[in-house]
Amino acid sequence: MTTDRIEAAHATLRANDRGGYTVPNPRIYPFQWNWDSAFVAMGFGTFDMSRAFDEIDLLLKGQWDNGLVPHIVFHAPADNYFPGPAVWGTNQPTPSSGITQSPVLASAARHLWEATKGQPEAEARLARIYPGLVRYHDWWHTTRDPKGTGLVTTLHPWETGGDNSPAWDQPLERVPSETVTPVVRRDDKVVDPSMRPLAIDYQRYIHLVDTYRATGWDPAKMLAVSPFRVADIGTNAILHRAELDLLAMSHRFGTPAERARIVERIPAMGAAIGRQWDAADGHFYSRDLISDTPIKVATSGGFLPLWAGCASAAQAGALESTLMGWLRQVRYAVPSTNPADPRYEPRRYWRGPIWSVVNWMIAEGFAGYGYTDIAGRIRADTRALVTKNGFWEYFDPRDGTGLGGPDFSWTAAIDLLLTPA
Length: 421
Ligand code: DGY
Fold this sequence. Notes:
Layout: H1 2-15, E1 32-33, H2 34-44, H3 49-61, E2 72-73, H4 85-88, H5 105-116, H6 120-144, H7 157-160, H8 169-172, H9 187-190, H10 199-214, H11 219-225, E3 230-231, H12 233-253, H13 256-274, E4 277-278, E5 283-284, E6 286-288, E7 293-295, H14 305-308, H15 313-327, H16 356-368, H17 372-389, E8 394-395, E9 402-403, H18 409-418
Helix pairs in contact: 1-18, 2-3, 2-5, 2-18, 3-6, 5-6, 5-12, 6-12, 12-13, 16-17
The structure holds (2R)-2,3-dihydroxypropanoic acid.
């Protein structure tokens, strides 16, 4: 049983392998995605370490001179995704989008390092990857937090990974729906539209792409003109954790100057994330950086300061109570939005469904604070969803129905990470 399951996960990753990089699902996402590849690399790391490093190498092949690691790298043409490279118009040697995505990458590299410590071949591969990770983190801080507030800005819902989360409803109201680029969606032709973002969401997503393309993808101009500027709690927590992982690797692969830079940034980020805590609600919130107010919509990203290791012991306890409250309303952990929120939709993409990758980080986070029961519950649910239905993109928290695309790479990768040794 376990062997069949492991083989099925391997087969899913192999089937989505395009020769060194992995597509999340060929019918919906036919290119390489940034945070998907970080999880996929860890998944490959359980059975093919060389292939795991290839995944990171090819993602970094799309890295810009300024350090940005794009959210999509278009290694080979495919006409079944919108917006494709022509819409982005980024003029990069390896075609790519012009925005980034949740920076799990350094954490994935650290994970592979821990799994291979002392193996010369792996060390050599990490030594080659490491400088790209440093440049990526420097990019985050210099271009997305130029004033040194401790919180990085995300300029597009796609950068947060939580595209149509109810947390972005209000900030997106400032974004006009007019577009220069005609919106010709493909996603809602292959996935039931009731599981995908709305037409108005796409109008706004593309308005933002048009706006940034018009700046020539100049980071300072993008920040200055954007009508959408949020400090996503999930992205900030993921970057904080990635900084700790980069710091650990810097002792082996880096220079004292790099290390000093990273060491200086971490406490400022931790303190700024700490200020996003809402004691009354027992949750961390994202922040709207245009109105400079918290976005009081409780999402699964609000648990990620546990993954970052920057929540206090008291906050970890409060987060456990918060999550237990959510789980009394659904069968499976962890819904992407508080099920009591009127905007919660259990089948619509990031408005309610469960995502294995987020579950994995939350479970790791709780376990790190000693909350082994809730960590075990999250892991068991994540596995049960796959047992019941397979490697779906996301799942309904009420009955576990598989949603979005089937045979999804990152769901298979997380299943491998959760498989008992
Ligand atoms: C999509 O296309 O739906 C992705 O989430 C954005 O990159």
